[in-house]
Design goal:
The chain is mainly α. Helices cover 74% and strands 0% of the residues.
């Protein structure tokens, strides 16, 4: 994938952290998935450092809009990839609760991606882990 500037990458990572924490379980596995996302978009940034910054942003923010505005400016392919990473974090504990599903619907609406695309991404990932 293409490189994203550090500020945008940190903001998107904060959204991933939010998705990971919404079920009140924030595991090492989820942290590693977020670091994989960071590494896939930046070859020269320290993923541990960006994750730490993203966690601080997520702790101090009550607005998803800030993070989704960054995503909204990207191509559909990039949006789909970000949704895939969000779903990977959410389904990493093998359950999807109503808060996680609601979050994904809200994000899709905010970045102008149809729910159908998000559902297809989720199904593909669920098939892979079976």
């Amino acid at each position: 994938m293409t490189d994203i500037d550090k500020k945008s990458l940190t903001g998107i990572a904060a959204l991933l952290v939010h998705a990971a924490k919404i079920d009140e379980l924030y595991s090492e596995n989820e942290k590693n998935l977020i670091k994989d996302f960071i590494n896939s978009y930046s070859s020269n940034e320290n993923s541990d450092e960006i994750l730490k910054e993203a966690e601080e942003i997520e702790n101090n923010s009550n607005q998803l809009l800030n993070f989704t505005n960054i995503i909204k400016q990207n191509s559909l392919d990039v949006k789909k990839d970000i949704l895939e990473h969000l779903w990977k974090v959410i389904i990493s504990d093998n359950t999807v609760d109503q808060y996680e599903s609601n979050l994904m619907r809200r994000i899709c609406g905010l970045i102008y991606v149809p729910d159908k695309i998000s559902a297809e991404i989720k199904l593909q990932l669920m098939e892979k882990i079976k």
